[in-house]
């Protein structure tokens, strides 16, 4: 099978490429990535595999996308501006990559009659009190990031309904694991704790997210690639809801660091309190389930960052010390 992966130099895309080529050595994967925030060329630098090729390019560019889509079987669209805080300070790149980029991919899959898997997010449903969002739950995005992802979903749905395109939407909760940008919650805490530096925590630290180990997410996408139904959407959760402060304490505990490193700072505007997905559909219909407990995934993630200092050597964790740049 030939896959066009977009955003493959980022966190989830790079894990997906490595994992897929290991599991399915006959697959041919082309990766288009513009090298924007979240990307790291080191993610796939060691990948010497004739079945893999990289094109530096922007998914907004219809000509490049059209050409690549014509030579693939399935497009898996990971490419996105993914950083909530950045979307608050400047929404424009999010409109460009996440909506205009989506449009150019949809035009190409329509023209060449190819299949699309659109990687979306639980954030499209906004903050929830005690319930969990199932696949048909109404959208209620809070940040420009979440709104851009919801917009992309709407476009996909319209191309399925109007042009009979073959597309599936996946919505995942917070991923963690190797190769995630140190701007994001878990790597940032690990790197600051490693250097015995203060760990800023937004608000009360009680915000809740569901967490899934990135390789579980990759397996869910592969399951959807083989068994997912055209026009459907699938929620993907780790069934692992935890608040931020508990996560920070768990990391400090595993690393043998003092809780004194934690310090609380002003909350970010529009900070959603809780995301929660009902993911029974993928569990029951496609028989996928997450395999990593949070403890096992966290230990593996911490070991990876400790053993791969070279990977983040030139990346600052101090980019914005007013707090976490991200609650992921
Ligand atoms: N990280 C999570 O917890 C999470 C959860 C749910 C959904 N998602 C979704 O999964 C996808 C991947 O997330 P991630 O955490 O790996 O993000 P990331 O920021 O680590 O990687 C995104 C990649 O996309 C590339 N990119 C962005 N805009 C592009 C463009 N216009 N053209 C080409 N490449 C472009 C970037 O260069 C980067 O390599 C995103 O669509 C995100 O919305 C992420």
What would you note in describing this structure?
It is globular and about 55 Å long. It has a domain at 2-175 and 212-236: Rossmann fold (3-Layer(aba) Sandwich), CATH 3.40.50.720. The protein is 38% helix and 18% strand. The strands form three sheets. The protein has a seven-stranded parallel sheet with strand order 3-2-1-4-5-6-10, sandwiched between helices. The chain has a three-stranded mixed sheet with strand order 7-9-11. It contains ten helices and twelve strands.
Features of this protein?
328 residues; 38% helix; Rossmann fold; globular; three-stranded mixed β-sheet; binds nicotinamide-adenine-dinucleotide; 10 helices
What's the gist of this structure?
The protein has 328 residues and is an alpha/beta fold. The chain has 10 helices and 12 strands.
CATH superfamily of the domain at 2-175 and 212-236: NAD(P)-binding Rossmann-like Domain
Number of H/I helices:
10
The low-confidence runs, each spanning 5 or more residues with pLDDT under 50, are 318-325
CATH class of the domain at 2-175 and 212-236: Alpha Beta
H/E series: EHEEHEHHEHEEHEEHEEHEHH
Helix share bin:
25-40%
Q: What oligomeric assembly is this protein in? A: single chain
Main sheet: strand order:
3-2-1-4-5-6-10
Largest sheet: 7 strands, parallel
Distance between the termini: 32 Å
Helix vs. strand class = alpha/beta
CATH topology assignment of the domain at 2-175 and 212-236:
Rossmann fold
List of distinct ligands in this structure: nicotinamide-adenine-dinucleotide
Q: Average pLDDT across residues?
A: 94
Overall 3D form: globular
């Amino acid at each position: 099978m030939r896959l066009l992966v977009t955003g493959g130099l980022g966190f989830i895309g790079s894990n997906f490429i490595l994992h897929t080529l290991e599991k399915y050595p006959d697959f041919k994967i082309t990766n288009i990535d513009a090298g924007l925030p979240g990307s790291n060329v080191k993610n796939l630098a060691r990948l010497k595999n004739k079945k893999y090729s990289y094109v530096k390019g922007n998914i907004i560019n219809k000509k490049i996308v059209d050409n690549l889509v014509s030579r693939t079987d399935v497009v898996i669209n990971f490419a996105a501006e993914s950083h909530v805080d950045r979307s608050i300070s400047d929404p424009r790149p999010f409109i460009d990559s996440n909506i205009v980029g989506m449009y150019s991919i949809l035009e190409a899959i329509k023209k060449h009659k190819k299949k699309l898997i659109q990687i979306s997010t639980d954030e499209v449903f906004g903050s929830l009190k005690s319930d969990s969002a199932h696949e048909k739950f109404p959208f209620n995005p809070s940040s420009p990031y979440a709104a851009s992802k919801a917009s992309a979903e709407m476009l996909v749905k319209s191309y399925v309904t109007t042009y009979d395109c073959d597309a599936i939407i996946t919505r995942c909760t917070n991923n963690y694991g190797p190769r995630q940008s140190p701007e994001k919650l878990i790597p940032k805490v690990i790197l600051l704790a490693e250097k015995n530096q203060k760990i800023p925590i937004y608000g009360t630290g009680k915000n809740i997210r569901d967490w899934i180990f990135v390789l579980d997410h990759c397996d869910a996408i592969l399951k959807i690639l083989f068994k997912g139904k055209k026009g459907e959407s699938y929620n993907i959760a780790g069934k692992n809801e935890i608040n931020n402060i508990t996560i920070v304490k768990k990391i400090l505990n595993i690393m043998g660091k003092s809780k004194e490193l934690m310090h609380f700072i002003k909350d970010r505007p529009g900070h959603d309190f809780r995301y929660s997905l009902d993911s029974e559909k993928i569990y029951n219909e496609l028989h996928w389930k997450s395999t990593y407990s949070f403890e096992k995934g966290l230990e593996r993630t911490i070991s990876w960052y400790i053993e791969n200092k070279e990977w983040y050597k030139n990346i600052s964790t101090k980019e914005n010390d007013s707090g976490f740049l991200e609650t992921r």
